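Re: [ENG-882] Designed sequences occasionally contain unexpected residues at chain ends

Forwarding the minimal case from QA. Structure tokens:
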């Protein structure tokens, strides 16, 4: 086993000696390992991506505070992420490689899905994310750090896109004219969520901001909601970010990086399923928030596609890529979903209306 990983793991207060430490999961941001100790205890060891999260101390302060708050409100330790302290009692450490590392208890008997295996699983993920937001409703939002400035400020995301497009550092813009045109054609309407926030029509809440299905764990036996994970982006935001991002990923009929676009659609049944679970778990949404749920799904999908396109043009520095053109493939699925959501907008609105009456 990698001696460096072994030494890093030994810097945390773990139960036994680490026997194995292997890459784990499908996240695009951090480097995640599953560490198994001599007595069988398992841990998640993560190298924090400090290019994406430049203020690691603030990031970890958020996570420590939010998990403490949640733990005070639940009996079951598997329902909240548990940070493992370092030997000196800190939340994270700096490795010999200069990188920042943290450790969590591995949540045993859990399932992390890359796509829903049934509508019931997707419903339970909605209950988990809706419940997470509901549980944090009383959390003093102003005490949280903004771990990525303007994370879901779609207007700002467009500015970043224009900046990279103008520079075209890898000479890739010429090959993606159709995607660029798709993005530009939707720019004028893309600020509606941030505008809703600015004008006070939409309330600021503590939100997760990265609610894809593989950021929630279900109980492996009952398949009931277990734990919301990947807390790096928990910060003040809009409920529509959480709802929208979950639909973007989980209501799609194909993987985020599917190359056969004919397989990519937004499934209205899954949309209805998620909306039902989310509204049940988080019943205090305002009428305006409810009205904009379909818009949230469309804007979050557009924004994500734009971010993939920006990163493709920029040379793939942000999202982990595993093949040439990976970010472009991801961008294409997202834009395909946006076009499908545009076609299905009325049906989505009817669904939300029916659930609310
Ligand atoms: P990223 O920010 O790169 O997406 P995540 O924090 O989401 O990283 O972790 C990547 C994957 O590791 C998750 O999708 C999940 O499969 C797994 N994972 C993370 N934390 C835990 C945990 N405490 N217990 C079980 N699995 C976990
Ligand atoms: C990233 O960290 P992960 O893989 O759960 C990204 C999200 C994107 C998502 C697209 C901090 O999520 O914003 O929607 O990829 N996280 C960050 O799959 O940028
Ligand atoms: Mg993740």
């Amino acid at each position: 086993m990698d001696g460096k990983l072994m030494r890093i793991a030994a810097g945390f207060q773990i139960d036994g000696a680490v026997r194995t430490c292997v890459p784990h999961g499908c996240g695009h941001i951090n480097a995640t390992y599953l560490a198994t100790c001599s007595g069988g205890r398992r841990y998640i060891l993560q190298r924090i991506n400090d290019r994406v999260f430049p203020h690691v101390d603030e990031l970890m302060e958020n996570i420590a505070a939010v998990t403490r708050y949640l733990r005070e409100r639940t009996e079951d330790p598997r329902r909240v992420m548990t940070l493992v302290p370092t030997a000196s009692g800190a939340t994270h450490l700096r490795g010999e490689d200069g990188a920042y590392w943290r450790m969590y208890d591995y949540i045993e008997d859990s399932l992390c899905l890359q796509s829903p295996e049934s509508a019931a699983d997707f419903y339970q993920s909605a209950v988990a994310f809706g419940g997470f937001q509901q549980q944090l409703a009383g959390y003093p939002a102003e005490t949280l750090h903004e771990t990525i400035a303007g994370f879901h400020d779609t207007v700002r995301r467009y500015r970043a896109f224009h900046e990279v497009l103008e520079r075209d550092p890898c000479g890739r813009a010429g090959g993606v004219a159709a995607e660029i045109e798709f993005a530009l054609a939707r720019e004028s309407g893309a600020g509606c969520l941030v505008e809703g926030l600015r004008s006070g029509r939409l309330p600021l809440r503590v939100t997760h901001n990265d609610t894809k299905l593989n950021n929630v764990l279900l109980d492996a036996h009952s398949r009931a909601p277990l734990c919301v994970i990947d807390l790096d982006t928990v910060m003040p935001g809009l409920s529509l970010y959480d709802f929208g991002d979950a639909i973007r990923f989980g209501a799609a009929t194909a993987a985020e990086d599917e190359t056969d676009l004919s397989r990519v659609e937004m499934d209205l049944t899954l949309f209805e399923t998620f909306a039902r679970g989310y509204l049940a778990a988080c019943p205090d949404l305002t009428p305006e928030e409810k009205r904009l749920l379909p818009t949230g799904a469309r804007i979050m999908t557009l924004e994500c596609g734009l971010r993939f396109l920006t990163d493709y043009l920029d040379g793939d520095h942000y999202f982990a890529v595993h093949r040439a053109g990976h970010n472009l493939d991801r961008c294409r699925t997202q834009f395909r979903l946006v076009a499908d959501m545009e076609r299905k907008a009325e049906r989505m609105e009817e669904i939300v209306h029916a659930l609310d009456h």
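QA comment: On inspection the terminal residues look reasonable. The longest helix spans residues 293-314. Proposing we downgrade this to a documentation issue.
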